[in-house]
Specification:
Elements lengths: L8 E5 L20 H13 L4 E4 L7 E2 L2 E2 L10 H9 L6 E7 L5 H15 L3 E6 L4 H4 L10 H19 L7 E4 L4 E3 L6 E5 L4 E5 L11 E4 L4 H10 L2 E4 L4 H12 L13 E6 L1 E3 L3 H15 L2 H12 L25 E2 L10 H15 L3 H8 L5 E3 L1 H13 L5 E4 L9 H13 L12 H5 L16
Parallel strand pairs: 1-2, 1-17, 2-5, 5-6, 6-11, 11-12, 12-13, 13-17, 14-16
Antiparallel strand pairs: 3-4, 3-15, 7-8, 9-10
Helix pairs in contact: 2-3, 3-5, 9-11, 12-13
Family: Belongs to the NtaA/SnaA/DszA monooxygenase family.
Keywords: Flavoprotein, FMN, Monooxygenase, Oxidoreductase
GO molecular function, one term: oxidoreductase activity, acting on paired donors, with incorporation or reduction of molecular oxygen
């Protein structure tokens, strides 16, 4: 007996704060004007996507002491954007990345509860920690929080916000005009939390929101991150978007759920994925090649090589061979604010590997960066892309994908118009939204529902 088809979850990542975005393309628009965010969100909603996702950039990256302006520079405030988008959408989930290292539980809980009310129950929080003192200098003297404390703080941060959300039960507001009684319980919102990182008490001033709590996302891939997601998150973002890598990550994280008393369907796994779409597979392959060369200019290639070499390589020809000098292994790195630096824990070994690759394939510096960096995950005609996405989901490589187009704000349009209808015809993607809240779209029970009451209970 064959298992039933899984329904695919799709979301849209407004690009920026990375080198996926080709801001120099003539079709590219603003990353700060509201019209760009509104167009992107309306396209995602027209396609019946689950949610829109905003990443976060808390400090401008630097390279060699100068602002790194080869990527999109900066990011408007997340809550401001999502609150504005709540007014121009009706069903689309609104997911924001908010840092647990540099904020306080009360203010974040208040902001998300407010967004949930404004949107009618469509808010979601991507809980992240910050790893570098460089970013932290914007928030605290020294800017540093040791790694072992970051996840400890994040876990307590999330638990504390949930205590605040749950300090209202949802039935406290009477608002009886005749008697003049507004609250049934004058103690509504009362909380006391004493822990390692937070010692707070008072009354939370935002009543129970439509979802009870925002949907919680997590993006860490470390051992701590996977455990954090298995214990506390509703969904986890993944960088494992290949079939084999996705299946391994999917099995690993899903198998961690049981020890926390959770079922497999209580945590969704959603890798980020880029795409190149054209009328034919051959045309899509050519488009993907062009886009990769747009994303990795000569200047960008040299800057990316500096992530490993930790040296000024501006005198090298990006169309020439790799440097014959070795990386400078030092704690003082010339690239500030970039997570990629952590990927290369052994720069000398990486340099040897890259030299061997370049020699074997006759690659220049630019060729090497193009081939070793991020690539489009789904390349082909609409039929090919739709078939491949469905195959990945049915093979338990993911529960769906967060799509990252290379053009803002129109880069999602063709996918919405050409790929989504094919997924709908296959019966693996919705034709209408399931309900008013993001929990409905994601198939997640309301926090107030017991397993026996939950809409997903078997």
């Amino acid at each position: 007996m064959s298992k039933p088809l899984k329904q695919i979850h799709l979301a849209a990542h407004f690009p920026g704060v990375n080198n996926t975005t080709v801001w120099s393309d003539p079709e590219a628009g603003s990353h700060i004007e509201f019209s760009s965010f509104a167009h992107f969100a309306k396209t995602a909603e027209r396609a019946k996507f689950d949610f829109l996702f905003l990443a976060e950039g808390l400090r401008l990256r630097e390279q060699g002491g100068k602002i790194y302006d080869l990527d999109v520079v900066g990011r408007p405030d997340t809550f401001t954007i999502l609150a504005a988008l709540a007014a121009v959408t009706e069903h689309l989930g609104l997911t924001g990345t908010i840092n647990s290292t540099f904020n306080e539980p009360y203010e974040v809980a208040r902001q998300f509860a407010s967004l949930d009310h404004l949107s009618g129950g469509r808010s979601a929080w991507n809980v992240v920690t910050s790893w570098d003192a460089f970013t932290g200098e914007n928030f605290r003297r020294g800017g540093f929080l040791p790694q072992e404390e970051r996840y400890s703080r994040a876990k307590e941060f999330l638990a504390t916000t949930q205590e605040l959300f749950d300090s209202w039960h949802g039935d406290e507001i009477l608002a009886d005009q005749a008697s003049g009684v507004f609250l049934r319980d004058a103690k509504a919102g009362s909380f006391v939390h004493t822990g390692q990182h937070f010692d707070i008490q008072g009354q939370f001033n935002v009543p129970r929101s439509p979802q009870g709590r925002p949907v919680v996302f997590q993006a860490g891939d470390s051992e701590e991150g996977r455990e954090f997601a298995a214990s506390s998150a509703d969904a986890i973002f993944s960088r494992h978007a290949t079939l084999e890598g996705g299946q391994a990550f999917y099995a690993d994280v899903k198998n961690r759920l049981a020890k926390y008393g959770r079922r497999h369907d209580q945590l969704l796994i959603l890798p980020a994925a880029s795409f190149a779409l054209a009328d034919t597979d051959a045309e899509a392959e050519e488009l993907a090649r062009i886009v990769r060369r747009q994303q990795v200019s000569g200047a960008t290639a040299l800057k990316h090589l500096e992530f490993v070499w930790n040296r000024d390589l501006s005198s090298y020809d990006p169309e020439g061979p790799l440097p014959d000098i070795d990386p400078d292994v030092s704690e003082n790195h010339i690239s500030k604010g970039r997570a990629q630096v952590r990927m290369y824990r052994d720069p000398l070994a990486t340099a040897r590997e890259w030299r061997e690759l370049a020699a074997a394939n006759n690659w220049s510096i630019r060729d090497l960066v193009i081939h070793t960096g991020n690539r489009q995950n789904f390349i082909g005609s609409a039929e090919t892309v739709a078939r491949t996405i469905n195959e990945y989901v049915q093979a338990d490589a993911s529960d769906g994908f967060i799509l990252v187009p290379h053009i803002t704000p129109t880069g999602l349009d063709a996918f919405a118009d050409k790929v989504v209808p094919l997924l709908q015809e296959q019966g693996v993607f919705r034709t209408e939204y399931e309900g008013p809240t993001l929990r409905h779209q994601l198939g997640l029970a309301h926090p107030d529902e017991t397993p026996a009451e939950g809409r997903l209970a078997s």
